[in-house]
Amino acid sequence: MNFDKLTEKAQEAVGAAQETALRMNHQQVEGEHLHMALLVQEDGLIPKLITFMGGNPELVVRDLQIELEKIPAVYGAGASSLYASRRLNEIIMHAEDEAKKFKDEYVSGEHLYLALLKERNTPSDGIFKRHGINSEKFLSALGKVRSNQRITSKNPEET
Fold it and tell me: Residues in the chain with pLDDT < 70?
């Protein structure tokens, strides 16, 4: 994964996911850490899209917090190393594929979220089902917000 191909907001989300894992004493950064980071990101697009779809981002955050608390905390000598899980790496890789489908030059938060939405049998998948969030609704909401604009800079939110 080339982090230079992530927008500034996407880079912030990955960094916030790592920080959440550290604060919770988790040994690896998982998809749910990234999911949480995208939901609570200041001026982030994802909560706006969830609201636009008729959902409540605060309720999704609450359910996600419950899932994160289920991940075992690690203390002691082994707790010093934090690494990205294979699943997280796959999510980022799939987000790159989503960006290519949109003909975008950079991977943004919506691409990361789409990659999360397309996963099956994960804690986030269960949360999406409970809250009626799916790829079709997400893409519809995104289409209305984004129209036909492409992401051609590291900071598309400013344009």
Answer: 1, 78-79, 157-159
Strand, coil or helix: 155:
coil
Contact 81, 128 (CB under 8 A): no
What is the rounded distance in angstroms from the CA atom of residue 28 to the CA atom of residue 85? 6
Distance CA 78, CA 46 (A): 34
Alpha helices in the chain, H assignment, sequence order: 8-23, 31-40, 45-52, 57-69, 86-101, 109-117, 123-130, 135-146
Helices 135-146 and 45-52: crossing angle in degrees, nearest 10, is 110
pTM of the model: 0.94
Angstrom distance (rounded) from CA 159 to CA 157: 5
Provide the 3-class DSSP secondary structure of residue 6.
strand
In eight-state DSSP terms, residue 105 is S
Number of C-beta neighbours around residue 27 at 10 A: 17
Per DSSP, what are the bridge partners of residue 29?
84
For the stretch 44-79, pLDDT in tens is: 999 999 999 999 999 999 999 999 999 999 988 766
